[in-house]
Specification:
This protein is mainly α. The chain is built from 5 helices and 2 strands; from the N terminus they run αααααββ. Strands 1-2 form a two-stranded antiparallel sheet. The longest helix has 28 residues. InterPro entries: Homeodomain-like_sf (IPR009057), Transposase_8 (IPR002514), Transposase_mutator (IPR001207), WH-like_DNA-bd_sf (IPR036388). Belongs to the transposase mutator family.
């Protein structure tokens, strides 16, 4: 067997951070997370386990160790209070959105009228000798009056 490999503190901290991120984001088992990080960094999973355990034992590691339950509980309380405050503010805004008749103002919701005006036609009145004509020009989302691929302009190839 060869001599044991030595890793610097930066590599150890990176391995611990990747391990903790993998556990949090992917919900894998601890062993699967250690194997994945070990493959990425070419480090034995048992070595990563030792580094993680050492990081959890150090209270001043600054790497956001998993074993720090007081900070997590305080953060959870803070987030729950913020969530409750936002829910109250949302209810206040919902009640404020009632118009003068007591009906809810549904400005952002789909309706048949809103869909027709958005996707419908632009009506233009043209005065002619015979009278006024109402012309309906289709509204297209891309801003052109011609659908994609069909226009009234013929393209002449260059070089002819």
């Amino acid at each position: 067997m060869g001599a044991p490999r030595k890793f610097d503190e930066e590599t150890r901290a990176r391995a611990v951070r990747l391990y903790q991120d993998r556990l949090r984001d992917h919900g894998e088992s601890k062993l699967a997370a250690r194997r994945h990080v070990g493959e990425l960094l070419d480090v034995n999973p048992a070595t990563i386990r030792n580094w993680v355990e050492a990081a959890e034992r150090e209270p001043d590691s600054g790497s956001g160790s998993v074993g720090n339950g007081d900070d997590a509980a305080a953060e959870l309380r803070r987030l729950r209070a913020e969530n409750a405050e936002l829910r109250r503010a949302n209810e206040i805004l919902k009640t404020a959105s009632l118009d003068s008749t007591g009906q809810r103002n549904n400005a952002g919701e789909r309706s048949e009228q809103r869909t027709n005006t958005f996707n419908g036609y632009r009506h233009r009145d043209f005065d002619t000798r015979a009278g006024t004509i109402d012309v309906a020009i289709p509204k297209l989302r891309n801003g052109s009056y011609f659908p994609t691929g069909s226009s009234n302009v013929d393209v002449v190839p260059s070089g002819l």
